[in-house]
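ok so for the tutorial part 2 we go from a plain amino acid sequence to predicted structure tokens. step 1 is just haveing the sequence, like this:
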Amino acid sequence: MKKNLCKIAFLLFVLFSLSLLAFSQKSDSTKVDNYFGGAVTVTNNGISLIPTFSIDKPAVLFDLTAGRGKLSFEPQFRFSLDGKPWTFFFWWRYKLVNTSKFFVRVGVHESLSYSTLSVVTNGESKDNIVTQRYLAGEFTPNYFLTKKISVGLYYLYSYGFDNEYVRNTHFGMLNMNFSNIKLSDKFFLSYMPQIYYLRINRNDGYNVTSTLILARKNFPVLFSVFGNKTIKSDVPGHKDFVWNASLIYSFNSSYVKK
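step 2 — the prediction. this is what the tokens look like for a chain of 258 residues:
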């Protein structure tokens, strides 16, 4: 219990520190980079942030980003295509290092996970939406071998407040990114293979994933195919193979506040 409280306190400390960093940026600067963007994704199968899990039905995802300098707020709202809420994330992220060769980011979020529970009352079955809360922190270093090839690590720790079966989650990933692979003057591919370790309470497992993205130059819509294969796992609820295909519409803008 004490260890869990220490982890929660650490995550709250990081969140508080990031908030301070937001206000510590020079307010009297004549040139401060501000940016706003987002993406809308429609997919045949909603896959979780931890990709060994999915809702096994079509979904729509809304991702927003608003930031100033190194700090950004990035909420994510995920729904099944029939309109039922799935997961909401409220990310705060901070770029510790951002150079042409090395990138390091830290982040924290509170999330709300929704599930449908059937309850029988007076012989009548009704669906109730149950909400579970999580607090998580992430660490993301990446190194650019070239402008188009990078290698990186990703680590996330999550604590579940309301789910006694999912209290402590550790998620560590090794990834590579091959971006802007030229197919023609107008079309490009990106390919991202990954291998990750997942531990939930005392159960763990290993998985590999691959993401393939097709993009057209100066066109805001992308096509993505994703697959997740379990190597070995005893994590409850894991699936041997998960995949989806998605259409992604993205937008972004930046401006200078004087």
